[in-house]
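Changelog-linked ticket: adenosine-5'-triphosphate example.
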Amino acid sequence: MLGTETGVTNASSTKLLKKGTRPGVGISEDKLIPRLKVIERLKKILQPNEDQSFYHVVCGEHGTGKTTLTRIASREAGQDKDRGIQGGAGVIYVDIPPDFKDLGDAFGKAINFAFEENISFTVQLGRKILGTTKDKSEISEWKRAMKAFKRASATYKAKHGKSPVIIYDNVSRLVHKNPEVLDILQDDAKDNADYQNYIAVFVSSEGSVPRRMESRSAWSRAENPIEIGDLSKEESINYLIDKRKVKKEEAEKLYELVGGRIIDLRRVANKSLAGQNFEVIKQKESIKALLDSKELDFTAFMELFNNYEEASEVLEKNIFAYHPEKKHRELPVSISRILYSGKVRYIH
Ligand SMILES: Nc1ncnc2c1ncn2[C@@H]1O[C@H](COP(=O)(O)OP(=O)(O)OP(=O)(O)O)[C@@H](O)[C@H]1O
Ligand SMILES: [Mg+2]
């Protein structure tokens, strides 16, 4: 047995790491931009050699494709099709949930997904990892899962001669409300890199995460962060034309409008393919850019419309849902003035 808290056996823990979490990607291959260079780079860090003694940080602004690429890499790491070897062995992927109290559960699930056994067995095992008593606090729940993972790591390393890897995606969800948990994960990542027990990979959209991590002594064991950025113009246009079947001329215009952020390209491609006119897309994107820039006041908003009715129509669609503090003032000015005045700032 691995320990009284977890009740996970050596055999099952080895099995779980052997298979890996292999998280789903959620995009069909025909719509996927391969981004082979980035994936290769990520795959390398997911297959550490025996002496690897650093942990990793993957960063990049919102919607650049970090989750997608990390998930692909974590499924493919170590794959050898010729020899019939499935990828993902030794890689556990944990998506940090929006609500901290679900962290223990997310951890347990990530570990459970790695099992091949039938669901009732995995549910049972999850209970063993996480404990069944209700009065145990959430913090001890995720700590217990962490402990189970570490014990499994030691077994895996002894058997396979290489450290397993744990990926924490969306760590920015910890940095504001539970920064001390991020600190614990980082300290643990450092200690375990030192002892070559497991390698951690932190994936974050917010600069506040690497900034906090960098400021701590445990940063001494971090590799230089890997940044996942926007697509080049060529990649963006190819995505719109080849993967989304947008016409060439429209693709050029859409790229000029939003730039090379995949999440933006995907959104405007969806709109265009749904039959929305380019001018309408442009107007909505301009509003979105203003809202995202957090610089929009109601005056600027009204300037986007020809008349009050047009503005009201948009307001009814609740675009100010996330900006309840904005006040309603009437100031209709021509839309073209703001669209071509350089006041619209796109965030790339
Ligand atoms: N290589 C790709 N090919 C096609 N679509 C992609 C690719 N990468 C990401 N996408 C799509 O772009 C959107 C954003 O991707 P993803 O969620 O991976 O970004 P992210 O950087 O993790 O975002 P966040 O910062 O919000 O966590 C998703 O809808 C995803 O399906
Ligand atoms: Mg993400």
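Closing comment: Example verified and attached. The chain is about 50% helix and 5% strand. The first strand starts at residue 56 and ends at 59.
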